[in-house]
Design a protein that fits this description.
Strand content: under 5%
Distance between the termini: 111 Å
Order of helices and strands: HHHHHHHHHHHHHHHHHHHHHH
Radius of gyration: 38 Å
Helix content: 55-70%
Structural class: mainly alpha
Protein backbone atom coordinates (compact mmCIF):
# COMPACT_ATOMS: atom_id res chain seq x y z
CA UNK A 1 0.00 0.00 0.00
CA UNK A 2 2.88 2.33 0.72
CA UNK A 3 4.46 1.72 -2.71
CA UNK A 4 1.13 2.38 -4.41
CA UNK A 5 0.50 5.51 -2.28
CA UNK A 6 -2.62 4.00 -0.76
CA UNK A 7 -3.47 5.21 2.73
CA UNK A 8 -5.01 2.67 5.16
CA UNK A 9 -8.59 3.26 6.20
CA UNK A 10 -10.55 2.11 9.25
CA UNK A 11 -11.36 -1.26 7.71
CA UNK A 12 -7.65 -1.88 7.07
CA UNK A 13 -6.77 -1.53 10.76
CA UNK A 14 -9.71 -3.70 11.77
CA UNK A 15 -8.51 -6.44 9.42
CA UNK A 16 -4.99 -6.21 10.87
CA UNK A 17 -6.24 -6.58 14.45
CA UNK A 18 -8.49 -9.44 13.46
CA UNK A 19 -5.53 -11.24 11.90
CA UNK A 20 -3.53 -10.82 15.13
CA UNK A 21 -6.42 -12.36 17.10
CA UNK A 22 -6.42 -15.39 14.79
CA UNK A 23 -2.79 -16.17 15.67
CA UNK A 24 -2.38 -15.50 19.41
CA UNK A 25 0.31 -18.16 19.74
CA UNK A 26 2.95 -15.90 18.21
CA UNK A 27 4.77 -13.92 20.94
CA UNK A 28 4.74 -10.63 18.99
CA UNK A 29 1.02 -10.57 18.21
CA UNK A 30 0.02 -8.52 21.25
CA UNK A 31 2.96 -6.12 21.11
CA UNK A 32 2.49 -5.36 17.42
CA UNK A 33 -1.25 -4.96 17.77
CA UNK A 34 -0.78 -2.54 20.69
CA UNK A 35 1.88 -0.56 18.85
CA UNK A 36 -0.41 -0.11 15.85
CA UNK A 37 -3.36 0.74 18.10
CA UNK A 38 -1.43 3.39 20.08
CA UNK A 39 0.01 4.83 16.85
CA UNK A 40 -3.55 5.53 15.71
CA UNK A 41 -3.81 8.14 18.50
CA UNK A 42 -0.97 10.19 16.97
CA UNK A 43 -1.76 13.60 15.48
CA UNK A 44 -0.56 12.61 12.02
CA UNK A 45 -2.56 9.35 11.94
CA UNK A 46 -5.00 9.25 9.00
CA UNK A 47 -7.50 7.16 11.00
CA UNK A 48 -8.50 7.71 14.62
CA UNK A 49 -9.40 4.62 16.66
CA UNK A 50 -13.06 3.85 17.19
CA UNK A 51 -14.74 1.39 19.52
CA UNK A 52 -14.57 -1.20 16.73
CA UNK A 53 -10.77 -1.02 16.74
CA UNK A 54 -10.74 -1.12 20.54
CA UNK A 55 -12.86 -4.27 20.62
CA UNK A 56 -10.57 -5.90 18.06
CA UNK A 57 -7.48 -5.09 20.15
CA UNK A 58 -9.20 -6.36 23.30
CA UNK A 59 -9.91 -9.61 21.51
CA UNK A 60 -6.21 -9.95 20.62
CA UNK A 61 -5.24 -9.49 24.28
CA UNK A 62 -7.96 -11.89 25.44
CA UNK A 63 -6.97 -14.63 23.00
CA UNK A 64 -3.33 -14.28 24.05
CA UNK A 65 -4.23 -14.29 27.77
CA UNK A 66 -2.54 -10.94 28.48
CA UNK A 67 -4.86 -9.47 31.11
CA UNK A 68 -2.56 -6.56 31.96
CA UNK A 69 -2.59 -5.31 28.38
CA UNK A 70 -6.36 -5.84 28.14
CA UNK A 71 -7.13 -3.86 31.29
CA UNK A 72 -4.70 -1.16 30.19
CA UNK A 73 -6.57 -0.67 26.92
CA UNK A 74 -9.95 -0.75 28.68
CA UNK A 75 -8.87 1.87 31.25
CA UNK A 76 -8.12 4.34 28.47
CA UNK A 77 -11.67 4.34 27.11
CA UNK A 78 -13.80 7.44 27.71
CA UNK A 79 -16.98 7.04 29.80
CA UNK A 80 -19.17 8.59 27.11
CA UNK A 81 -19.00 9.49 23.46
CA UNK A 82 -18.17 7.64 20.27
CA UNK A 83 -15.28 5.75 21.85
CA UNK A 84 -17.16 4.65 24.99
CA UNK A 85 -17.36 0.90 25.67
CA UNK A 86 -20.35 -0.94 24.29
CA UNK A 87 -21.88 -4.35 24.96
CA UNK A 88 -19.22 -6.18 22.90
CA UNK A 89 -16.47 -4.49 24.94
CA UNK A 90 -17.81 -5.73 28.27
CA UNK A 91 -18.53 -9.17 26.79
CA UNK A 92 -14.90 -9.50 25.68
CA UNK A 93 -13.62 -8.42 29.09
CA UNK A 94 -15.87 -10.84 31.00
CA UNK A 95 -14.92 -13.76 28.75
CA UNK A 96 -11.24 -12.89 29.16
CA UNK A 97 -11.57 -12.87 32.95
CA UNK A 98 -13.28 -16.25 32.89
CA UNK A 99 -10.70 -17.75 30.54
CA UNK A 100 -7.79 -16.46 32.62
CA UNK A 101 -9.34 -17.83 35.82
CA UNK A 102 -9.99 -21.25 34.29
CA UNK A 103 -6.60 -21.68 32.61
CA UNK A 104 -4.27 -23.63 34.84
CA UNK A 105 -0.81 -22.32 35.67
CA UNK A 106 2.00 -24.83 35.38
CA UNK A 107 3.03 -26.19 38.75
CA UNK A 108 0.10 -24.84 40.79
CA UNK A 109 -2.18 -26.91 42.99
CA UNK A 110 -5.71 -27.22 41.68
CA UNK A 111 -7.29 -27.25 45.12
CA UNK A 112 -5.76 -24.01 46.32
CA UNK A 113 -4.40 -21.61 43.72
CA UNK A 114 -7.00 -22.18 41.00
CA UNK A 115 -9.95 -21.93 43.41
CA UNK A 116 -8.58 -18.72 44.85
CA UNK A 117 -8.07 -17.30 41.37
CA UNK A 118 -11.63 -18.22 40.39
CA UNK A 119 -12.98 -16.55 43.51
CA UNK A 120 -11.12 -13.33 42.67
CA UNK A 121 -12.42 -13.52 39.09
CA UNK A 122 -16.01 -13.75 40.32
CA UNK A 123 -15.51 -10.74 42.60
CA UNK A 124 -13.94 -8.82 39.73
CA UNK A 125 -16.93 -9.67 37.54
CA UNK A 126 -19.36 -8.50 40.22
CA UNK A 127 -17.66 -5.10 40.40
CA UNK A 128 -17.69 -4.81 36.63
CA UNK A 129 -21.39 -5.70 36.50
CA UNK A 130 -22.17 -2.78 38.83
CA UNK A 131 -20.76 -0.43 36.20
CA UNK A 132 -22.66 -2.24 33.45
CA UNK A 133 -25.92 -2.01 35.43
CA UNK A 134 -25.46 1.71 36.11
CA UNK A 135 -24.76 2.46 32.44
CA UNK A 136 -27.76 0.38 31.41
CA UNK A 137 -30.02 2.13 33.94
CA UNK A 138 -28.98 5.52 32.55
CA UNK A 139 -29.61 4.40 28.97
CA UNK A 140 -25.93 4.72 27.95
CA UNK A 141 -25.43 1.01 27.26
CA UNK A 142 -27.29 -1.61 25.28
CA UNK A 143 -27.35 -5.08 26.85
CA UNK A 144 -27.85 -8.26 24.82
CA UNK A 145 -28.09 -11.94 25.65
CA UNK A 146 -24.41 -12.55 24.91
CA UNK A 147 -23.34 -10.05 27.58
CA UNK A 148 -25.76 -11.43 30.19
CA UNK A 149 -24.68 -15.02 29.56
CA UNK A 150 -21.00 -14.03 29.67
CA UNK A 151 -21.59 -12.69 33.18
CA UNK A 152 -23.57 -15.80 34.09
CA UNK A 153 -20.86 -18.17 32.86
CA UNK A 154 -18.34 -16.25 34.95
CA UNK A 155 -20.57 -16.68 38.01
CA UNK A 156 -20.60 -20.45 37.46
CA UNK A 157 -16.91 -20.51 38.36
CA UNK A 158 -17.78 -19.63 41.94
CA UNK A 159 -17.94 -22.52 44.36
CA UNK A 160 -20.50 -20.78 46.54
CA UNK A 161 -24.21 -21.51 46.31
CA UNK A 162 -24.86 -17.77 46.41
CA UNK A 163 -23.07 -17.30 43.07
CA UNK A 164 -25.32 -19.81 41.29
CA UNK A 165 -28.41 -18.34 42.96
CA UNK A 166 -27.42 -14.87 41.77
CA UNK A 167 -27.57 -16.14 38.17
CA UNK A 168 -31.33 -16.49 38.54
CA UNK A 169 -31.42 -12.94 39.91
CA UNK A 170 -29.33 -11.79 36.94
CA UNK A 171 -31.87 -13.32 34.52
CA UNK A 172 -34.71 -11.68 36.42
CA UNK A 173 -32.95 -8.31 36.44
CA UNK A 174 -32.10 -8.12 32.73
CA UNK A 175 -34.78 -10.29 31.08
CA UNK A 176 -37.76 -9.75 33.42
CA UNK A 177 -38.15 -13.53 33.86
CA UNK A 178 -39.65 -14.17 37.33
CA UNK A 179 -37.65 -16.40 39.62
CA UNK A 180 -39.10 -19.87 40.12
CA UNK A 181 -37.65 -20.07 43.63
CA UNK A 182 -37.20 -17.33 46.28
CA UNK A 183 -33.86 -15.67 46.78
CA UNK A 184 -31.39 -17.21 49.16
CA UNK A 185 -31.85 -15.77 52.62
CA UNK A 186 -35.52 -14.90 52.21
CA UNK A 187 -38.04 -16.22 54.77
CA UNK A 188 -39.72 -18.65 52.35
CA UNK A 189 -36.52 -19.97 50.78
CA UNK A 190 -36.13 -23.18 52.79
CA UNK A 191 -39.77 -24.20 52.56
CA UNK A 192 -39.94 -23.51 48.82
CA UNK A 193 -36.76 -25.46 48.11
CA UNK A 194 -37.99 -28.35 50.28
CA UNK A 195 -41.28 -28.42 48.37
CA UNK A 196 -39.55 -28.17 45.01
CA UNK A 197 -37.15 -31.00 45.80
CA UNK A 198 -39.80 -33.32 47.32
CA UNK A 199 -40.52 -35.13 44.06
CA UNK A 200 -41.11 -38.84 43.84
CA UNK A 201 -39.29 -39.43 40.57
CA UNK A 202 -39.78 -43.18 40.93
CA UNK A 203 -43.43 -42.63 40.05
CA UNK A 204 -42.39 -41.46 36.56
CA UNK A 205 -43.94 -38.01 36.84
CA UNK A 206 -44.35 -36.05 33.63
CA UNK A 207 -43.06 -32.60 32.79
CA UNK A 208 -44.96 -29.77 34.48
CA UNK A 209 -47.28 -27.64 32.43
CA UNK A 210 -47.42 -23.87 32.53
CA UNK A 211 -50.48 -23.97 34.78
CA UNK A 212 -48.65 -26.17 37.28
CA UNK A 213 -45.64 -23.88 37.55
CA UNK A 214 -44.96 -22.09 40.80
CA UNK A 215 -44.42 -18.37 40.08
CA UNK A 216 -42.70 -17.92 43.41
CA UNK A 217 -41.35 -14.49 42.71
CA UNK A 218 -44.30 -12.62 41.25
CA UNK A 219 -44.34 -8.86 40.90
CA UNK A 220 -46.46 -8.36 44.04
CA UNK A 221 -44.27 -10.58 46.18
CA UNK A 222 -41.12 -8.91 44.92
CA UNK A 223 -42.36 -5.44 45.69
CA UNK A 224 -43.67 -6.44 49.14
CA UNK A 225 -40.69 -8.48 50.31
CA UNK A 226 -37.99 -6.10 48.99
CA UNK A 227 -35.38 -8.90 48.80
CA UNK A 228 -32.24 -6.82 48.43
CA UNK A 229 -30.89 -3.32 48.05
CA UNK A 230 -29.73 -2.28 44.52
CA UNK A 231 -26.84 -0.33 46.01
CA UNK A 232 -25.36 -3.37 47.78
CA UNK A 233 -26.53 -6.19 45.48
CA UNK A 234 -25.46 -5.81 41.82
CA UNK A 235 -28.14 -8.31 40.72
CA UNK A 236 -31.06 -6.76 42.55
CA UNK A 237 -34.07 -5.56 40.60
CA UNK A 238 -33.94 -1.93 39.58
CA UNK A 239 -36.55 0.17 41.41
CA UNK A 240 -38.16 1.26 38.16
CA UNK A 241 -37.54 -1.95 36.23
CA UNK A 242 -35.65 -1.99 32.94
CA UNK A 243 -34.83 1.42 31.42
CA UNK A 244 -37.70 2.95 29.50
CA UNK A 245 -35.41 3.66 26.54
CA UNK A 246 -34.57 -0.05 26.24
CA UNK A 247 -36.62 -3.22 26.35
CA UNK A 248 -35.73 -6.21 28.47
CA UNK A 249 -33.26 -8.67 26.97
CA UNK A 250 -34.94 -11.53 25.16
CA UNK A 251 -33.69 -14.95 26.34
CA UNK A 252 -32.41 -17.56 23.92
CA UNK A 253 -30.76 -20.96 23.86
CA UNK A 254 -27.68 -19.76 25.69
CA UNK A 255 -29.85 -18.46 28.52
CA UNK A 256 -31.75 -21.76 28.70
CA UNK A 257 -28.55 -23.79 29.19
CA UNK A 258 -27.20 -21.29 31.71
CA UNK A 259 -30.32 -21.35 33.88
CA UNK A 260 -30.58 -25.16 33.91
CA UNK A 261 -26.89 -25.51 34.78
CA UNK A 262 -27.29 -23.06 37.67
CA UNK A 263 -30.36 -24.90 39.00
CA UNK A 264 -28.55 -28.24 38.85
CA UNK A 265 -25.68 -26.87 40.91
CA UNK A 266 -28.03 -25.41 43.51
CA UNK A 267 -30.05 -28.69 43.50
CA UNK A 268 -33.43 -27.08 42.80
CA UNK A 269 -34.69 -29.51 40.16
CA UNK A 270 -38.36 -28.56 39.97
CA UNK A 271 -37.38 -24.93 39.41
CA UNK A 272 -35.23 -26.06 36.46
CA UNK A 273 -38.24 -27.90 35.01
CA UNK A 274 -40.32 -24.77 35.45
CA UNK A 275 -37.75 -22.68 33.59
CA UNK A 276 -37.61 -25.30 30.80
CA UNK A 277 -41.38 -25.28 30.40
CA UNK A 278 -41.53 -21.47 30.54
CA UNK A 279 -38.85 -20.98 27.89
CA UNK A 280 -39.72 -23.81 25.47
CA UNK A 281 -43.52 -23.85 25.57
CA UNK A 282 -44.77 -23.25 21.97
CA UNK A 283 -47.68 -21.21 23.33
CA UNK A 284 -45.57 -19.32 25.89
CA UNK A 285 -44.05 -15.85 25.66
CA UNK A 286 -40.53 -16.93 24.60
CA UNK A 287 -41.00 -19.95 22.27
CA UNK A 288 -37.34 -21.02 22.39
CA UNK A 289 -36.54 -23.99 20.13
CA UNK A 290 -33.90 -26.00 22.03
CA UNK A 291 -30.72 -27.13 20.29
CA UNK A 292 -28.64 -30.22 20.98
CA UNK A 293 -26.72 -28.66 23.87
CA UNK A 294 -29.96 -27.56 25.54
CA UNK A 295 -31.30 -31.10 25.35
CA UNK A 296 -28.04 -32.48 26.74
CA UNK A 297 -28.20 -30.10 29.68
CA UNK A 298 -31.80 -31.07 30.39
CA UNK A 299 -30.85 -34.77 30.17
CA UNK A 300 -28.24 -34.11 32.86
CA UNK A 301 -31.03 -32.71 34.98
CA UNK A 302 -32.98 -35.94 34.39
CA UNK A 303 -29.90 -37.90 35.45
CA UNK A 304 -29.71 -36.07 38.76
CA UNK A 305 -33.42 -36.73 39.31
CA UNK A 306 -33.12 -40.40 38.30
CA UNK A 307 -35.99 -39.79 35.86
CA UNK A 308 -35.40 -42.50 33.26
CA UNK A 309 -38.92 -42.32 31.79
CA UNK A 310 -38.65 -38.56 31.28
CA UNK A 311 -35.29 -39.08 29.54
CA UNK A 312 -36.88 -41.50 27.05
CA UNK A 313 -39.75 -39.09 26.43
CA UNK A 314 -37.27 -36.30 25.83
CA UNK A 315 -35.43 -38.43 23.25
CA UNK A 316 -38.75 -39.00 21.49
CA UNK A 317 -39.38 -35.25 21.47
CA UNK A 318 -35.97 -34.70 19.90
CA UNK A 319 -36.73 -37.20 17.13
CA UNK A 320 -40.23 -35.95 16.41
CA UNK A 321 -39.51 -32.24 16.80
CA UNK A 322 -42.28 -31.63 19.33
CA UNK A 323 -40.73 -28.35 20.51
CA UNK A 324 -40.11 -26.87 17.07
CA UNK A 325 -37.66 -28.75 14.89
CA UNK A 326 -36.13 -32.21 14.79
CA UNK A 327 -32.77 -32.52 16.51
CA UNK A 328 -30.00 -34.86 15.42
CA UNK A 329 -29.36 -37.62 17.93
CA UNK A 330 -25.68 -38.04 18.69
CA UNK A 331 -23.64 -40.64 20.52
CA UNK A 332 -23.36 -38.27 23.45
CA UNK A 333 -27.15 -38.04 23.61
CA UNK A 334 -27.60 -41.77 24.14
CA UNK A 335 -24.77 -41.95 26.65
CA UNK A 336 -26.37 -39.31 28.87
CA UNK A 337 -29.82 -40.87 28.48
CA UNK A 338 -28.56 -44.35 29.39
CA UNK A 339 -26.70 -42.92 32.36
CA UNK A 340 -30.11 -41.70 33.58
CA UNK A 341 -31.33 -45.31 33.49
CA UNK A 342 -28.22 -46.57 35.26
CA UNK A 343 -28.72 -44.01 38.02
CA UNK A 344 -32.37 -45.09 38.26
CA UNK A 345 -31.42 -48.76 38.69
CA UNK A 346 -33.74 -49.29 41.66
CA UNK A 347 -36.67 -48.76 39.32
CA UNK A 348 -37.56 -52.12 37.72
CA UNK A 349 -38.87 -50.35 34.60
CA UNK A 350 -35.51 -48.69 33.94
CA UNK A 351 -34.39 -51.82 32.04
CA UNK A 352 -37.34 -51.41 29.65
CA UNK A 353 -36.54 -47.74 29.12
CA UNK A 354 -32.89 -48.58 28.46
CA UNK A 355 -33.94 -51.26 25.95
CA UNK A 356 -35.97 -48.67 24.07
CA UNK A 357 -32.97 -46.32 24.02
CA UNK A 358 -30.73 -49.10 22.66
CA UNK A 359 -33.26 -49.81 19.91
CA UNK A 360 -33.40 -46.11 18.99
CA UNK A 361 -29.60 -46.00 18.95
CA UNK A 362 -29.42 -48.93 16.52
CA UNK A 363 -31.94 -47.23 14.25
CA UNK A 364 -30.38 -43.75 14.40
CA UNK A 365 -26.58 -44.00 14.60
CA UNK A 366 -24.33 -45.30 11.84
CA UNK A 367 -22.84 -47.87 14.19
CA UNK A 368 -23.71 -48.59 17.85
CA UNK A 369 -21.70 -47.09 20.67
CA UNK A 370 -19.76 -49.58 22.80
CA UNK A 371 -19.81 -47.48 25.94
CA UNK A 372 -23.58 -47.02 25.77
CA UNK A 373 -24.06 -50.78 25.37
CA UNK A 374 -21.79 -51.36 28.36
CA UNK A 375 -24.09 -49.11 30.41
CA UNK A 376 -27.04 -51.24 29.27
CA UNK A 377 -25.32 -54.45 30.36
CA UNK A 378 -24.25 -52.89 33.65
CA UNK A 379 -27.85 -51.86 34.31
CA UNK A 380 -29.02 -55.43 33.77
CA UNK A 381 -26.38 -56.85 36.10
CA UNK A 382 -27.21 -54.31 38.82
CA UNK A 383 -30.86 -55.32 39.07
CA UNK A 384 -31.77 -56.99 42.36
CA UNK A 385 -32.94 -59.70 42.44
CA UNK A 386 -31.43 -60.91 39.18
CA UNK A 387 -33.67 -62.64 36.66
CA UNK A 388 -31.94 -64.82 34.09
CA UNK A 389 -34.75 -64.28 31.58
CA UNK A 390 -34.23 -60.50 31.69
CA UNK A 391 -30.48 -60.94 31.35
CA UNK A 392 -30.95 -63.33 28.43
CA UNK A 393 -33.19 -60.79 26.70
CA UNK A 394 -30.50 -58.13 27.19
CA UNK A 395 -27.93 -60.50 25.67
CA UNK A 396 -30.13 -61.13 22.64
CA UNK A 397 -30.72 -57.41 22.11
CA UNK A 398 -26.99 -56.63 22.11
CA UNK A 399 -25.45 -59.64 20.33
CA UNK A 400 -25.92 -58.20 16.82
CA UNK A 401 -24.56 -54.82 17.90
CA UNK A 402 -21.52 -56.50 19.46
CA UNK A 403 -20.96 -58.47 16.26
CA UNK A 404 -21.12 -55.26 14.21
CA UNK A 405 -18.61 -53.57 16.51
CA UNK A 406 -16.22 -56.52 16.15
CA UNK A 407 -16.52 -56.25 12.37
CA UNK A 408 -15.96 -52.50 12.62
CA UNK A 409 -12.74 -53.10 14.51
CA UNK A 410 -11.61 -55.67 11.96
CA UNK A 411 -12.53 -54.02 8.66
CA UNK A 412 -12.88 -50.29 9.37
CA UNK A 413 -9.69 -49.63 11.31
CA UNK A 414 -10.08 -45.83 11.32
CA UNK A 415 -13.42 -45.90 13.17
CA UNK A 416 -12.74 -49.07 15.13
CA UNK A 417 -9.54 -47.82 16.75
CA UNK A 418 -11.40 -44.86 18.24
CA UNK A 419 -13.35 -47.15 20.59
CA UNK A 420 -11.15 -50.25 20.63
CA UNK A 421 -10.84 -50.28 24.41
CA UNK A 422 -14.58 -49.75 24.82
CA UNK A 423 -15.29 -52.68 22.47
CA UNK A 424 -12.92 -54.93 24.40
CA UNK A 425 -14.58 -53.96 27.71
CA UNK A 426 -18.01 -54.58 26.17
CA UNK A 427 -17.05 -58.08 25.04
CA UNK A 428 -15.62 -58.90 28.48
CA UNK A 429 -18.80 -57.66 30.13
CA UNK A 430 -20.86 -59.79 27.75
CA UNK A 431 -18.86 -62.86 28.76
CA UNK A 432 -19.53 -62.03 32.40
CA UNK A 433 -23.23 -61.64 31.62
CA UNK A 434 -23.31 -65.08 30.00
CA UNK A 435 -21.60 -66.57 33.07
CA UNK A 436 -24.26 -65.04 35.33
CA UNK A 437 -27.05 -66.36 33.08
CA UNK A 438 -25.60 -69.87 33.13
CA UNK A 439 -25.10 -69.71 36.87
CA UNK A 440 -28.61 -68.50 37.73
CA UNK A 441 -30.72 -70.27 35.12
CA UNK A 442 -28.74 -73.44 34.58
CA UNK A 443 -31.55 -75.65 35.84
CA UNK A 444 -34.44 -73.80 34.19
CA UNK A 445 -32.84 -73.11 30.79
CA UNK A 446 -33.45 -75.39 27.85
CA UNK A 447 -30.64 -77.31 26.23
CA UNK A 448 -30.60 -75.13 23.10
CA UNK A 449 -30.41 -71.91 25.11
CA UNK A 450 -27.60 -73.28 27.25
CA UNK A 451 -25.69 -74.48 24.18
CA UNK A 452 -26.16 -71.15 22.42
CA UNK A 453 -24.85 -69.20 25.43
CA UNK A 454 -21.77 -71.42 25.70
CA UNK A 455 -21.02 -71.07 21.99
CA UNK A 456 -21.25 -67.28 22.23
CA UNK A 457 -18.96 -67.26 25.25
CA UNK A 458 -16.37 -69.46 23.50
CA UNK A 459 -16.49 -67.31 20.36
CA UNK A 460 -15.96 -64.12 22.38
CA UNK A 461 -13.10 -65.70 24.33
CA UNK A 462 -11.42 -66.72 21.07
CA UNK A 463 -11.88 -63.25 19.58
CA UNK A 464 -10.38 -61.61 22.67
CA UNK A 465 -7.36 -63.94 22.50
CA UNK A 466 -6.77 -63.25 18.80
CA UNK A 467 -7.11 -59.52 19.23
CA UNK A 468 -4.80 -59.46 22.25
CA UNK A 469 -2.13 -61.51 20.45
CA UNK A 470 -2.38 -59.30 17.39
CA UNK A 471 -1.98 -56.18 19.48
CA UNK A 472 1.00 -57.71 21.30
CA UNK A 473 2.68 -58.51 17.98
CA UNK A 474 2.14 -54.99 16.67
CA UNK A 475 3.40 -53.44 19.89
CA UNK A 476 6.46 -55.74 19.97
CA UNK A 477 7.33 -54.86 16.38
CA UNK A 478 6.94 -51.14 17.10
CA UNK A 479 9.05 -51.38 20.26
CA UNK A 480 11.82 -53.26 18.46
CA UNK A 481 11.82 -50.69 15.69
CA UNK A 482 11.99 -47.86 18.20
CA UNK A 483 14.82 -49.69 19.97
CA UNK A 484 16.82 -50.01 16.76
CA UNK A 485 16.33 -46.35 15.96
CA UNK A 486 17.31 -45.36 19.49
CA UNK A 487 20.47 -47.46 19.36
CA UNK A 488 21.36 -45.91 16.04
CA UNK A 489 20.87 -42.42 17.44
CA UNK A 490 23.03 -43.21 20.48
CA UNK A 491 26.07 -44.01 18.32
CA UNK A 492 28.61 -41.21 17.85
CA UNK A 493 28.32 -39.09 14.76
CA UNK A 494 31.73 -40.23 13.48
CA UNK A 495 30.67 -43.87 13.61
CA UNK A 496 27.46 -43.09 11.77
CA UNK A 497 29.40 -41.15 9.10
CA UNK A 498 31.83 -44.08 8.68
CA UNK A 499 28.92 -46.42 8.29
CA UNK A 500 27.42 -44.20 5.65
CA UNK A 501 30.74 -43.98 3.76
CA UNK A 502 31.21 -47.73 4.06
CA UNK A 503 27.74 -48.24 2.74
CA UNK A 504 28.50 -45.99 -0.23
CA UNK A 505 31.76 -47.86 -0.90
CA UNK A 506 29.99 -51.19 -0.72
CA UNK A 507 27.34 -50.01 -3.11
CA UNK A 508 29.98 -48.74 -5.55
CA UNK A 509 31.79 -52.09 -5.40
CA UNK A 510 28.55 -53.96 -5.97
CA UNK A 511 27.79 -51.76 -8.98
CA UNK A 512 31.27 -52.37 -10.42
CA UNK A 513 30.96 -56.14 -9.99
CA UNK A 514 27.53 -56.15 -11.54
CA UNK A 515 28.79 -54.18 -14.54
CA UNK A 516 31.72 -56.58 -14.96
CA UNK A 517 29.45 -59.57 -14.76
CA UNK A 518 27.20 -58.00 -17.33
CA UNK A 519 30.12 -57.42 -19.66
CA UNK A 520 31.29 -60.99 -19.13
CA UNK A 521 27.85 -62.30 -19.85
CA UNK A 522 27.67 -60.30 -23.07
CA UNK A 523 31.04 -61.68 -24.19
CA UNK A 524 30.05 -65.25 -23.47
CA UNK A 525 26.82 -64.71 -25.34
CA UNK A 526 28.70 -63.45 -28.45
CA UNK A 527 31.16 -66.38 -28.26
CA UNK A 528 28.42 -68.95 -28.08
CA UNK A 529 26.60 -67.32 -30.98
CA UNK A 530 29.79 -67.41 -33.15
CA UNK A 531 30.40 -71.04 -32.28
CA UNK A 532 26.85 -71.98 -33.23
CA UNK A 533 27.12 -70.22 -36.58
CA UNK A 534 30.46 -71.88 -37.26
CA UNK A 535 28.99 -75.27 -36.40
CA UNK A 536 26.07 -74.72 -38.78
CA UNK A 537 28.46 -73.72 -41.61
CA UNK A 538 30.59 -76.83 -41.09
CA UNK A 539 27.52 -79.04 -41.19
CA UNK A 540 26.43 -77.45 -44.45
CA UNK A 541 29.86 -78.02 -46.02
CA UNK A 542 29.85 -81.69 -44.99
CA UNK A 543 26.34 -82.17 -46.39
CA UNK A 544 27.30 -80.58 -49.71
CA UNK A 545 30.46 -82.71 -50.05
CA UNK A 546 28.52 -85.92 -49.34
CA UNK A 547 25.90 -85.01 -51.92
CA UNK A 548 28.57 -84.52 -54.61
CA UNK A 549 30.22 -87.79 -53.69
CA UNK A 550 27.05 -89.79 -54.00
CA UNK A 551 26.13 -88.10 -57.28
CA UNK A 552 29.46 -88.84 -58.87
Amino acid sequence: MKKRAQLPDAHTFTTLFRGFSWHPQFPLSVSRALSIYHAMYADNSPVKPSIIHTNAVLKVCAMAGDMDALLGVAARLPPRGSGAPNNLTFTTILNAIRSAAWTSIKGEKVDSARLERQRRAVMQGRKLWEEIRDRWAKGDLYIDEELVCAMGRLMLLGNDEQDCDDILSLIEQTMAVPRQVPRQGQPGRRGAVRNLQAIDVAKDSDLPSLDEMVPVASEDSISSEDPSDPESDPFALLPSGPPKSQAAVRPGRNTLSLVIDACIRVRIMRAAQNYWGLFTDPSGPYKIVPDTENYHMYLRLMRVQRASKMAVELIDDMRQGTLGSKTELQTKTFRIALSCCVRDKRNRNSVLYAAKLVRLMDETLEHPDARALSMYLDLGLSQQPRDWRTLLDILRRTQFSIRNLRSLLAYDVAKGKEQEEDIMDLVKMSIGLIDVILDIGNEEMSGDERKNCKEQSHAMHAWLTRTANQDKGIKAHAESRRGRLANRERRPARVRDDEVERTHEDSDAIDARSRASLRQTDGERETSRWQKNRRRTADKDVATAWQRFTTD
